[in-house]
Predict the 3D structure of the following.
Amino acid sequence: MKKHQDQGGLKPEYASILDGFYRGLAPSGLSPDYRAETEVYRRRSRLASAGRLYESLMSASGVAAGPRVGYFCNLVPEELIRACGAVPVRLCELDHACARLGEEVLPGDACPMIKSICGSAAAGRYRDLDLLVIPAACDGKAKLSELLAPVRPVYLLDLPRSSEYLRNADAWTGRYQDFFDFLKERFRSRAGRSELTAECRRANLRTQLFRRLYHFRAGHPGLINHFDYFTLVSLSFRLEPEAWLDLAGEILAEAVGRAEGLKFDGRRILLAGSPIIFPAYKVLDILYEFNCEAVADSLCSGYGHLYDPVEIDEETETGIIRALALKYLAASLCPCFMGLNKLLDLLVDTTAEYRLDGVIYHDLRLCQVFDMQTVAIRQVLKEKRIPFLSIKTDLGREDTGQLKTRIEAFLEMLG
Amino acid sequence: MAIAGLDIGSVATKCVVVDDGRIIGAALVRTGTDTEKAATRALADALQQARLERAVLEKIVSTGYGRRQCGLADRVITEISAAGAGAFRMNGRRPGLVVDIGGQDTKVIEINGEGSVSDFLMNDKCAAGTGRFLELMAQVLETDMEGFSQLARSAEAPRRLNATCSVFAESEVVSLIAHGESKTNIAAGLFEAVASRVAAMLRQFQEQPVFFCGGGARSPALRLALERLAGRPVQVLDPPQFVVAFGAAMLPDGV
C-alpha cells in the first residue's frame, strides 16, 4: 500500500520545510466571510425556499459525520469514497482572497483555481481533512499533489487524458480500482459490490432530480435563477445526497407551483468554459444586470457535475467501477481531456433544443487549455449561425466595466 | 430635429450633432478624470459649431466606456453597436468589417447588409495593440503621433519587436535605440506589431471589405501596415474619430 502514498508525496524532511513556510504565510489563518454575498443572492432569488438554500452555504448541516476526504475536480468518484464510509468534500474553489495568498506560493500567472486551492491549503483550511485526493487532470493539479503533501496525506489519481473510452476504459477502471482498494485499506472498510450499488443509487437519485431541474430552468427562465442554480450545484460538493435532494426538491417544487403564466422578456444563453463556483459570480452578476439568464451550461461546476448517471451493465465490483469510469471520464467535458467533439455537439444540440439566444464562453484567464479551444468553438458556432461571445476574465472585479461592454454589445447584437 | 451622439472614450470624448443624417457640428476634448465635465464641454462645443441651442436637440445618445457616467444622455448604447451603425452610414451602406482602434480597446466588428452588427471581437484586458500603446511608444521615441507615423514611413527595414507587453516594449525600444537601431525602423516595427494583432483578428472572419475608424485610423503608417499584413485594402472612414459618436446619433430607437 505504500506505493500509493508515495505517488503524491514529498519526503518528510522536505514536507516539513514547506509546511513551516506555509504556516508562516497566514499565521492567523484565513476564513473568508461570504455573509454579504449570500444576502445579495438570497434577495435576488424569486423563491421563498431560497432562504434555506443560501443559509446552507453558511452552515454545516447536511454534511455527514465520518472521516473526511477532500477532493479536487469532478473526476473523482464520490461513490467510491462513500462506499468506504468516508465523507467526500469537493474542494474546488474560486476565492479571490485565497488566490492572492496562493500567489505567495505559486506564480501570479498560474490558474486562478490552483492559486485559490494553494492559498486555502497554506492558510490551514484543509488541516481537519483526513485525506486529499487529486486527479492528475491537468498539470496544475498534478503539481498540487506535491505542494499539498505537507498539509495532509495526498492520493494522486493519475488518469490517462483521452476520452476515447473504448481505448481507455480498461485503464481508467484499473486506476479507480486501485483507488478503491486504497480507500478500503485506509478506512478499514470491507466495502464491495452491495455498498457500491447503494452509493450509485444515491448518486443517481440526485442526478434524476438535477435533470428535472435543469430542463425546467430552460423552459421557465429566471424562476430558479442562475445564482440559485450554481449555488445548488456548489452545495452538492459537500452535502449528503439526501440533504441535497431535500433542498433542491423544495426549490423545484416551489418553482413548478409558480411557473404558470410566467413571462420572461430577457435573453437565454448557454454558459460554457471555465467553472463558476460561489462566490465567484462576477459574470452571472453582469448577465443578471442585463436581464440575461444562463439557463444551460457545460461547466464542471454545473451540468458536468450532476448531469450524468452511473449506468451499470454488470453488477460485479469491477462492472460497477467500470460504469463509474464511464460516468466520470467518458462524459467529461474538461478541455484537458480530448473532448472537443462532445463539447461542440453539446453546444450545438442544446442551443437548438432549448432555442437559446447564444453561447457565452467564460474563459478564466490563465487556464490556458480553455483558451486553446476558443477559436475552434468560435469558428464552428459561426458556421452554425449560433451567436457566440468569448470573455476572458479572472477573479478580480476591476475588469467589470470591460466585461459589461462586451456582454451588453452581445445582447444588443441579438436585437 | 437634431440629435447629439456622445462617445465618451478612455482618452477622448467626441460629440457630434446630426441633422437629417449630416454632421452639422463636431467636437473632441480630452476625457481626463471628470467624465461629466468632458461630456458637457464636448456637447457645448459641438452645439456651438452647429449654431444650435441644447434645448432644440431631440435627444442625446451616449456611448463609449464612460457611457453610463454621464447624466446628459437620454439613451445609452455600447460603442460596438454605435461603431457598426456609424461605419455603415459612412461607407455607403456596405457590409464588411470595421476595425476600431481606440484608446484602450481594439475591436473588429462585422456588419451585415442591413447595417446590423452580426459578430465582433475585442482585444482582452491588456493595452498592447491599442491606441494608448502607440501613444506611449511615441513618447519613448520622443515624438508625437504625427511624427511617429512619419518616422515609420521612412523606414528601410521595419525592426521586429518581441515584447507583447507595453512595459516590456518600452524597455525593448530603449535598448534598441541604445544599440544603434534607427528610430524609423523601430517606429515601423511598432506599427507592424499592432497591425499584426489586428490582422489576426480579421482572419477570424470571412474575407470582406475592411473599414478603419477610431483614433488609430488617423495614422497613415498604421493603415499601411494593416493593409500589408491583412493583404487587402483598408478604407479609412472620415472623420475616423467621430464614427462611433455619429453611429450613436444615427441608431434608430430600440437598437
Observations:
- The first strand of chain A starts at residue 68 and ends at 71.
